[in-house]
Design brief:
5 strands; OB fold (Dihydrolipoamide Acetyltransferase, E2P); mainly beta; five-stranded mixed β-barrel
């Protein structure tokens, strides 16, 4: 799937990286690359939803990043 949106840092404790997508949903990023870990970065991400991964933050679907482009 391909999503566009803005990178945010969310959650409690150490927090988690997320994509606030243009579709209005938040997606928790699963092991995002360091170049993607910048609050406010506008990006297009190609990835897949991981139904087999559970997290403590539980802010939305877990998105495994396969590639991304900074917009």
């Amino acid at each position: 799937m391909t999503l566009t949106g803005v990178i945010q840092r969310k959650g409690f404790g150490t927090g988690t990286w997320a994509l606030d997508a243009d579709d209005g949903k938040s997606y928790e990023l699963h092991h995002p690359p360091s170049d993607l870990q910048k609050v406010g970065l506008k990006v297009k991400i190609d990835g897949q939803i991981r139904e087999d991964v559970m997290t403590i933050a539980m802010i939305g679907p877990v998105l495994e990043v396969q590639s991304f482009t900074v917009l």
